[in-house]
Amino acid sequence: MGDNGSTKIWLNGELVGTDEARISVFDHAVLYGDGCFEGIRAYGGRVFKLASHLDRMYASAKKLRLTPPFPKDEIDRAIRTTLSANGLTDAYIRLVFTRGVGTLGLHPFRCPKPTAFVITDSIELYPPELYENGMDVIVARQRRIPIESLDPSIKSLNYLNNILAKIEAIDADVLEAIMLNVDGQVSECTGDNIFLVSDGVVITPPACAGILHGVTRRFVMEELAPALGHAVEERSLTVDDVLGADEVFLTGTAAEIIGVKRIDGHAIGCGAVGPVTRALTAEFRRRVSSNAPED
Prior knowledge:
By secondary structure, the chain is an alpha+beta fold. It has eight helices and 15 strands. The model has no long low-confidence stretch (mean pLDDT 95).
């Protein structure tokens, strides 16, 4: 964040400067990664799929047995207030609930008061040329935590599993890595959902593969792909399925829709962004630039 002291953060009901936006070292978010978050986008002053993001946020909190410190309507206002206070119409928004201050022990219910904050800023996850030319990714050695061990529908603050795979990507001089589940099936990437295109059909791994239910993923599946005449399937995928696809693309709130040209050095399709991916990207940008859907 390029902050000159004027950036405002919404923290527990108040707008404060970045120097005042602090949480305790005894907050269980700091000690144990105990909390949940959402990454959200605003386009032209409209907050993209905000109701879906808030539904997922409050569902994550419920599964963590973390009582949100504010109701949805107040968080909705907090997000819009923070955007306005920072003069932003096109922005990335980070909403966070932490467990709050507690003891050094694990006991979560000794944290009497959760914390909530909203950050708004600009974001450029991937360089613009990658959207035009496609990106290189790898298949990480790090496997996804089994769904029997941690429900992937919880968008928790503990991202260590993803971070370890991200380090593999960085070491390989690429920006993203595909993660497999413990059965060797394709799950998702470190921060994005994954799709492939085969004979015009758009295919993505199912929930049982250990994926996060991405908001942009659902937008592609339920709105964009059908609008462009493409059938959508959820099915288990192997690495060979992905390597043999006509096209591969990733989706995410920050990433939007971005094509993959190579995986572990293996060219996907013609080794460039494919026509279906380009059409989906164009339709996504058309919709969010003209009237970003708020649900």
